[in-house]
Automatic annotation (TrEMBL):
A divalent metal cation 2 binds at E146, H179, H207. SUPFAM superfamilies: Metallo-dependent hydrolases. It holds the Pfam family PTE. It comes from Streptomyces boncukensis. This is Phosphotriesterase. A divalent metal cation 1 binds at H30, H32, E146, D264.
């Protein structure tokens, strides 16, 4: 007989609310399954639902069978080529729950007209999507992200987007995942978000594995924010040797409950069928190295399952 999970914290997925207690396996905390960031016109920064959907689906289904992958936080938001219907199909075909997102990426990818919008107008847009669903589908977002900035200080349009995300998060109970370009500007992002009254534990600061600055990681973690090591395997940006060192330093500083892990697959060339590392690089390569450095099963479960669920829901350690 199937066990029904009717109480406790829940995450919003393409199929509706999912009890955290039903998420038995690991999660990928920052991924893209359908994406279009093709500013240069070369088709590289694309994951097309029709051309690449079967490859993405095949990878996730394989990871579900081999490693128990249970959840993917899909952070393709407004202006990033998101496709909630395609996400729902992938989730249904793979048995892997997918958390869809809303928000705006960093400034080069802002849609036309966004620069003139007020924080209040932006907040209203996010609240409407949280209430009514994404792009007329009725599929409601489960996270705000990846809300972006670049440089050490967000630009004025980026600051308005961050403030709007914080206000919408407070109103809806959703969390905010950020894009900190090359890992920079995370502390400034957090200041803006918490300045709008959003608790730090409802924020995941993105791409911190690209920033070789353990002091910043510790400061973010001490504040209560989640520190996302979410580009694992992207060796052209940062070596996994450095990522592992930075993660171990954060863990040794006592912040295991603040770290998130993922691969941020953001172009079709990263798929395994095209010779890339794929969504499974975290499980096949990075986690074995972390285990060899001394991580036990409980720590790996914390990093790959409990932390993502706590981030998404705001639940306490005892609740997950």
């Amino acid at each position: 007989m199937r066990t029904l999970h009717t109480t406790g914290p829940r995450v919003r997925t393409t199929a509706g609310p999912l009890p955290c207690a039903a998420v038995r396996g690991p999660a990928l905390a920052h991924e893209h399954l359908v994406l279009d960031l093709d500013l240069r016109g070369d088709g590289a920064a694309v994951l097309d639902a029709h051309r690449h959907g079967d490859q993405v689906t095949g990878e996730l289904a394989e990871l579900h069978a081999e490693f128990g992958l249970s959840l993917v936080v899909e952070l393709s938001c407004r202006g990033m080529g998101r496709d909630p219907r395609a996400l729902a199909r992938i989730a249904e075909r793979t048995g892997v729950a997918v958390v869809p997102a809303t928000g705006w990426y960093y400034e080069p990818f802002h849609p036309a007209g966004l620069d003139g919008a007020s924080v209040e107008e932006l907040t209203a847009t996010l609240l409407a999507e949280a209430r009514d669903g994404l792009d007329g589908t009725g599929i409601r977002p489960g996270v705000l992200g990846e809300v972006g900035s670049h440089g050490d200080t967000p630009s004025a349009p980026e600051a308005r987007v961050l403030r709007a995300a914080a206000r919408a998060a407070r109103e809806t109970g959703l969390s905010v995942a950020t894009h900190a370009q090359l890992g920079r500007g995370g502390l400034a992002q957090l200041d803006l978000l918490t300045g709008e009254g959003l608790p730090a534990h409802r924020v995941a600061v993105g791409h911190q594995d690209l920033l070789d600055d353990p002091a910043v990681h510790r400061e973010l973690a001490r504040s209560g924010a989640y520190v996302a090591f979410d580009t694992v395997g992207k060796e052209s940006y940062q070596s996994d040797d450095v990522r592992l060192r930075l993660l171990l330093e954060l863990l040794e500083a006592g912040h295991a409950d603040r770290a998130l892990l993922s691969c941020d697959i953001s172009r079709h060339g990263y798929l395994r069928t095209e010779g890339g590392q794929g969504y499974g690089h975290l499980f096949r390569s990075f986690l074995p190295r972390l285990r060899a450095a001394g991580a036990d099963d409980d720590l790996v479960d914390l990093l790959t399952r409990r932390n993502p669920l706590r981030f998404l829901t705001g639940a306490s350690t005892e609740e997950i």
